[in-house]
Amino acid sequence: MVDPRGPRFAAAVTTVVLAVTIITGNPWLLLGQTVVFLVGAVAGIRNAPYGLVFRYLVRPRLGPPADLEDEAPPRFAQAVGAVFGVLGTVGLLAGPAALGYSAAALAFAAAFLNAAFGFCLGCQIYLVLRSATVKGART
Amino acid sequence: MTGVWVLLAALVAATGVGLLARARDGRFRVSRVRGGPRGAAARRGDQHGGGEREGRGDAGPAAVTGVGAVPGPDPGDHRPEAPGETAPGETARGGRGGLTAELAALGHVPGEVATLLQFSTAFCAPCRVVRRVLADVAAIVPGVRHVEVDAESHLELVRRLGVRRTPTVLVLDAEGVEARRASGAPPTRDAVLATLASLVESAPGDHRKGTDGDSVGLSGNA
């Protein structure tokens, strides 16, 4: 269970980092963000860098959360972010640049949607992916 | 310079998606595929014509014969023993008997008034909220049941019903036929109550009788 404002805060930071990445076209910045995504997916969002910032610097200044959320959805979203981060980093470093920009732009759009609207694109994609890839019909 | 344009495009696109989602998600819509109140009423006659419920008769014979339904009993129509193997296009959203067979496969029977069928996944943050809202409604409205389905382990059903996102909530009428649908975000409790009210109004008032059934619905989700 996590405070839902944590992932939202992380999404806001991610949005800014990815925006700077796209404007500057700096692959190392994107690589850094990708590592953050990976840590979030593997170790949990609370232990990822932005999660730690939220826990120790932001949350003490806020009131208690109205509701707690499951950790699995944002964690899955971090894994989706990591995939796009890797693609984008490869694209920016080795080309084609279009791959780098489009992957970074998609990751940015997803982070922005989460931060501004509370809409988890990665979570929404999950069922579509499962439904498209799993052939077995078990009802 | 490229980056600035890419960023602007992504920002505009994401804002568009976000605004659209905010406007549409979590709102109940009347289900399109033969799911309108009239279609549901006609099917009701079709399905149970000649059955023990024919005695209620208050749906009006015109509703039954108006669509050319055969009023006689037709045992070949529905085979509840094979819920997973119904022919494509047969049951799905609108078919005969609605989702009663599917509910039975999940170990449930339709609520006396309505069933709130929720599709969830493990990676669905709003599903928790939906669960609470629907369980709440099922507890306070007699005859309404809440059934939650793990979409991932029922992908066949998910595909057949065209469920693409979680949470998705189907409101099934008393016959188990899908009448309303909302997806993407948790509907508010008031929205669920309003939808149930509109469902009961649009039905020809045939599941109003028999107070014995009302207490059954309270047992809710087993």
Automatic annotation (TrEMBL), chain A:
* Keyword list, A-Z: Membrane, Transmembrane, Transmembrane helix
Report the transmembrane regions from the record: 9-29, 35-58, 79-99, 105-129
InterPro entries, alphabetically?
DUF4395, UCP030042
Question: Which top-rank group of organisms is this from?
Answer: Bacteria
- Is-annotated flag, keyword Transmembrane? yes
The UniProt record lists the DUF4395 domain at 2-130
Name-wise, this protein is DUF4395 domain-containing protein
Give the species. Parafrankia soli
Q: Which Pfam families match?
A: DUF4395
